[in-house]
């Protein structure tokens, strides 16, 4: 089978791909430690719109950078989704001020720094009433089409985001994007449904049926246990921060019964790199394996 | 003559309800901006279409706005630029003429402060057209609040040639192109297209807004710019009556124009704009109208100084001047509200007929406020337009599809099409060089991509043949030579740079002792540039008398006679070797007689300009040498030479000729050092010439001398002080030396400059 890939400004992204999520700024210092290794261990990196604002030329990544829309903030308390001239706009209360997330500001920013962009979408949590769910989906679709119509940077692949509450609504959403001109389709909103693998895979298969050969990305799901099945169901790429979250808790993938009780920053770094290498299939570089890592310190979980 | 009615341009239905700005559902901020710019108005159809129906302020697409003259499309351009300014980025407005750029800059500068308050940030406005008189270039980050630059396309393109300026270009958020139909223009289209291609291929493309009153089919343009919105309105407000005046055999065009003016002018509110082909026609017709009709009729053309043109404009705007006769070349700059327009010449001898678009563009200048415009095109029996054909074209107002300037073969060009753009790209990519593929890839993104791409190998071969570029065979990349890079960055026409350099190389080849270089005079620069320039003015015809005058001047001022004229060009046909000089310059070899006459004409012009640069007055030169209209011609002529001299000065450096000296002349170190010294001398000659040409002051040479003897490292007296002396009637050293310190200070000269002047005078007395 021919290798599938996506051409980006900063190089080709070969599929299947595990794309680690990283952040910028002061909130997650572990990400700063991981970042210099990313280009050696990962094919690309995903940055959320929110954290990407903290990127600077000095800290910019040396590999294809995927930038999402920040729409997951619709799940935050205090955020409000409004319709404005037919488009979905999110108002987010953050640090005593209100920020507005508009498809235009998202796209402008993505055109400046991203190598792959995702349209502004609004996650539909499992318990949401159908009326509101449909509204969120409608606005997600409107935003996607608007972004496609208004993208000026021709070398920026644009992924339209699918948001749905079940298999049929996912299919219907994907149908609206198929043959639209998007370079890829991304499925969001699956993280709260991650435990229901059957539903997740059903949604993936339904979307894949509608979109033909277009690259398919799943947002936020990246645990090794489900990766193989996702790829087999037709997913080309996933993004996840679980590699680093596991590491932050002192856990190593593949050894879930063990953990380091009070991991030091070096421990966390090494665990994160090990997790990332496991996910991407790369080999850890020499510099990281020379770090002190004592399995003797790992204890079994109770 | 007979008048043929070609109908009335479609107009807005007066019965439709008037829309207000509030109806457009714009943010309050934009309503305030509109109120600031156009208080008390209602939105025009094109504005409603753009702002309400297409919501251009809510989307990011490129825009093409096609609407008649005075239809309100400029506001659309302004709003998209202001939107970018608000975000803190740079916005550029491109105008085809310096005069238009100045007009727009003045318009925005007058409201910049209030605009900044509305947008919530201070707005800085700058003009950049390469006019040395008014500008100061700064290539830093945009100032806080955003910056609006009003520029000509040529100026912006010149900035692109220097890779150091590329980060500046990355700060541009939007570009508005006025008179965008010039994309298809033979003369201007290539530069504009190249510029837009650069913007489209930038890492973050700015928003492009193209405005025009005469755009035909835009399908190709729309595809090129995609994503792109096209906003098209064809209805005019006020309506335009279109007429043809068909002349019979024997009818004289001027008389018909005067008769037409006679019919129009009894209406005290009428003002007439007449377009003619040539400058002298404009002058003679304006004079005739004034004399025969007793009204204030004035000519307006490129051979007038800026001041003179501004005076005529103001006269027309105030209503004092009721008839203005202008050349078609200045049609673009005619932003004047006339009630009537007459186009006297629709066909230019040796060039052909004007297109329907050009005619409609000029006719569209008629109409003011609510008053319908009336526009007439005169058609003579021998014109390129048949009356019936023109009537059909004017009725239909069908304009041709806008295409790329590169898609046409414009005739015999000195340089293969696309060469300038290839050189500009090589200059931009100077460090890494460019493969043919890279050049092809960029140019393939242009509107005329297909046509241009095929020209790349041809252009590269030409550049190599002129020693302006070379290929690195190992890397397969092309690079500009030192000479090529300097010429391109200086925006010198490539044939001028190539010819000048070849002549110098030939001199170095034939004279291993470099006595010729040592003997090079300042006027040699002007002579060579005159021969190479395609725009030298016609001062007089060649005649035996002219030859005598030139020879006489050379006898009188032997120290100023150019080396080239003295050694090669002077003499009668049998003895003059001007052909050899033309050959070295890469100019078409002519027969000896024509070459000799061309040489003398060039020398005549050099003589005249030389005298002007030393401060001799127009009138004395014109009287002595029988030249008409020198004052009007001079400004443009000097500007052209100043630009070329500035560019040439950058070439006159040993590194531009090092390869030739070492490889072709086998020069040793001693010779290289000698030539380096001579180039320095020659280069300094160009600086001095530029100073003299800039000011053309009788005290110009004196200024130079005072500065020369003033202590080093101290600030030196400048032209302002010299102008004050001139205004006080002091034009020579003798009068100046009779003034004491107090008298000089009273004239407004600062004490420190008075000291410098007196120091110089004291030295001269010794």
CATH architecture of chain A: Alpha-Beta Barrel
Distance between the termini of chain B: 76 Å
User: Using DSSP, what is the number of strands of chain B?
Assistant: 18
Number of strands of chain A: 16
Low-confidence stretches of chain A: 289-302
Mean pLDDT of chain A: 89
Structural domains of chain A: how many: 1
Structural class of chain B: alpha/beta
Major sheet strand order of chain B: 1-9-16-13-10-12-11
Q: How does the major sheet of chain B shape up?
A: 7 strands, mixed
How is the CATH topology of chain A named?
TIM Barrel
Counted by DSSP, the helix tally of chain A is: 10
Termini separation of chain A = 45 Å
Oligomer: heterodimer
Indicate the percent of residues in helices of chain B: 40-55%
Description:
- The complex is a heterodimer of chains A (302) and B (766).
- With 302 residues, chain A is an alpha/beta fold.
- Chain A has a single domain (5-240), classed as Alpha-Beta Barrel (TIM Barrel), CATH 3.20.20.
- Chain A is built from 10 helices and 16 strands.
- In chain A, 45% of the residues are buried.
- Chain B is of the alpha/beta class and 766 residues long.
- In chain B, the strands form 4 sheets. In chain B, strands 1-9-16-13-10-12-11 form a 7-stranded mixed β-sheet, with helices on both faces. In chain B, strands 4-5-3-6-7-2-8 form a 7-stranded parallel β-sheet, sandwiched between helices. Chain B has a two-stranded antiparallel ribbon with strand order 14-15.
- In chain B, α19 runs antiparallel to α20 and α26 (592-613) crosses α30.
- Chain B is globular.
- Chains A and B meet through α3 and α4 of A and loops of B.
């Amino acid at each position: 089978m021919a290798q599938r890939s996506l051409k980006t400004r900063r190089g080709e992204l070969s599929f299947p791909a595990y794309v680690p999520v990283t952040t910028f700024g002061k909130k997650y210092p572990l990400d700063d430690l991981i970042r210099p290794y990313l280009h050696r261990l990962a094919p690309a990196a995903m940055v959320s719109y929110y954290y990407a604002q903290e990127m600077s030329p000095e800290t910019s990544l040396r590999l294809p950078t995927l930038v999402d829309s920040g729409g997951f903030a619709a799940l935050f308390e205090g955020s409000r989704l409004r319709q404005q001239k037919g488009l979905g706009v999110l108002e987010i209360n953050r640090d005593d001020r209100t920020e507005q997330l508009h498809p235009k500001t998202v796209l402008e920013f993505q055109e400046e720094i991203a190598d792959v962009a995702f349209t502004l979408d609004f996650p539909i949590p499992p318990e949401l009433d159908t009326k509101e769910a449909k509204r969120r989906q409608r606005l997600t679709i409107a935003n996607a089409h608007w972004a496609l119509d208004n993208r000026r940077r021709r070398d920026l692949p644009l992924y339209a985001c699918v948001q749905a509450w079940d298999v049929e609504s996912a299919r219907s959403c994907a149908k609206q994007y198929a043959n639209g001109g998007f370079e890829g389709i991304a499925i969001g909103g699956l993280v709260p449904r991650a435990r229901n693998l059957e539903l997740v895979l059903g949604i993936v298969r339904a979307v894949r049926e509608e979109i033909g050969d277009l690259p398919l990305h799943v947002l936020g799901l990246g645990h090794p246990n489900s990766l193989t099945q996702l790829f087999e169901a037709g997913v080309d790429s996933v993004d996840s921060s679980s590699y680093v979250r596991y590491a932050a808790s002192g856990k190593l993938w593949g050894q879930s019964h063990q953990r380091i009780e009070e991991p030091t920053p070096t421990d966390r770094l090494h665990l994160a790199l090990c997790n990332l290498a496991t996910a991407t299939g790369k080999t850890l570089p020499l510099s990281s394996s020379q770090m002190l890592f004592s399995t003797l310190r790992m204890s079994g979980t109770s | 003559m007979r008048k043929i009615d070609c109908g009335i341009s479609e107009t807005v239905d007066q019965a439709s309800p008037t829309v207000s700005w509030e109806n457009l559902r714009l943010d309050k901020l934009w309503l305030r901006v509109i109120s600031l710019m156009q208080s008390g108005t209602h939105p025009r159809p094109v504005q409603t279409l753009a702002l309400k129906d297409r919501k251009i302020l809510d989307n990011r697409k490129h825009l093409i706005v096609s609407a008649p003259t005075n239809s309100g499309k400029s506001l659309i351009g302004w709003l998209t630029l202001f939107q970018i300014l608000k975000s803190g980025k740079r916005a550029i407005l491109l105008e085809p003429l310096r005069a238009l750029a100045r007009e727009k800059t003045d318009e925005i500068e007058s409201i910049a402060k209030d605009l900044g308050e509305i947008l919530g940030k201070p707005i800085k406005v700058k003009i950049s057209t390469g006019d040395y008189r008014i500008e100061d270039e700064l290539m830093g980050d945009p100032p806080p609040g955003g910056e609006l630059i009003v520029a000509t396309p040529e100026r912006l393109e010149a900035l692109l040639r220097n890779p150091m300026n590329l980060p500046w270009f990355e700060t541009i958020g939007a570009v508005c192109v006025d008179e965008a139909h010039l994309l298809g223009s033979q003369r201007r289209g290539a530069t504009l297209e190249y510029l837009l291609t650069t913007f489209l291929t930038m890492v973050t493309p700015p928003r492009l807004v193209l405005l025009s009153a005469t755009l035909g089919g835009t399908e190709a343009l729309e595809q090129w710019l995609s994503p792109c919105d096209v906003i098209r309105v064809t209805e005019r407000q006020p309506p335009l009556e279109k007429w043809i005046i068909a002349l019979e055999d024997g009818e004289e065009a001027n008389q018909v124009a005067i008769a037409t003016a006679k019919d129009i002018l009894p209406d005290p509110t009428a003002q007439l704009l007449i377009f003619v082909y040539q400058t002298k026609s404009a002058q003679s017709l304006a004079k005739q109208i004034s004399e025969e009709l007793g009204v204030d009729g004035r000519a307006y053309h490129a051979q007038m100084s800026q001041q003179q043109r501004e005076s005529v404009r103001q006269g027309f705007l105030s209503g004092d001047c009721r008839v203005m006769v202008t050349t078609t070349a200045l049609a673009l700059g005619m932003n004047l509200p006339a009630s009537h327009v007459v186009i006297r010449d629709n066909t230019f001898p040796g060039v052909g007929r004007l297109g329907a678009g050009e005619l409609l563009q000029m006719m569209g200048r008629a109409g003011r406020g609510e008053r319908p415009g009336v526009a007439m095109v005169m058609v003579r029996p021998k014109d390129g337009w048949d009356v019936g054909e023109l009537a059909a074209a004017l009725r239909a107002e069908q304009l041709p599809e806008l295409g790329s300037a590169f898609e046409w073969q414009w005739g015999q060009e000195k340089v293969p099409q696309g060469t300038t753009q290839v050189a500009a790209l090589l200059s931009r990519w100077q460090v890494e060089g460019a493969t043919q593929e890279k050049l092809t890839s960029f140019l393939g993104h242009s509107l005329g991509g297909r046509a241009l791409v095929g020209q790349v190998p041809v252009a590269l071969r030409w550049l190599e043949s002129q020693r302006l570029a070379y290929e690195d065979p190992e890397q397969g990349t092309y690079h500009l030579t030192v000479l090529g890079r300097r010429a391109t960055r200086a925006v010198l026409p490539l044939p001028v740079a190539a010819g000048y350099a070849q002549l110098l190389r030939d001199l170095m080849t034939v004279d291993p002792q470099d006595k010729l270089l040592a003997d090079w005079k300042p006027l040699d620069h002007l002579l060579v540039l005159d021969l190479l320039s395609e725009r030298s003015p016609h001062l007089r015809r060649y005649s035996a008398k002219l030859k005598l005058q030139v020879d006489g001047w050379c006898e009188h001022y032997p120290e100023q006679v150019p080396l080239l004229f003295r050694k090669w060009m002077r003499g009668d046909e049998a003895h003059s070797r001007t052909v050899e000089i033309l050959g070295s310059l890469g100019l078409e070899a002519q027969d000896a007689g024509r070459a000799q006459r061309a040489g003398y004409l060039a020398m005549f012009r050099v003589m005249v300009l030389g005298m002007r640069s030393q401060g001799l007055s127009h009138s004395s030169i014109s009287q002595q040498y029988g030249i008409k209209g020198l004052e009007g011609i001079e400004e443009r002529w000097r500007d052209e030479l100043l630009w070329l001299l500035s560019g040439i000065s950058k070439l006159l450096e040993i590194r531009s000729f090092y390869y030739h000296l070492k490889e072709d002349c086998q020069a040793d170190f001693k010779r290289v050092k000698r030539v380096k010294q001579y180039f320095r001398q020659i280069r300094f000659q160009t600086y001095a010439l530029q100073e003299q040409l800039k000011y053309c002051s009788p005290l110009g040479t004196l200024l130079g001398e005072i500065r020369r003897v003033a202590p080093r490292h101290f600030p030196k007296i400048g032209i302002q002080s010299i102008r004050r002396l001139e205004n006080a009637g002091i034009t020579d050293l003798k009068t100046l030396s009779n003034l004491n310190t107090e008298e000089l200070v009273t004239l407004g000269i600062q004490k420190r400059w008075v000291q410098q002047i007196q120091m110089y005078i004291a030295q001269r007395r010794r």
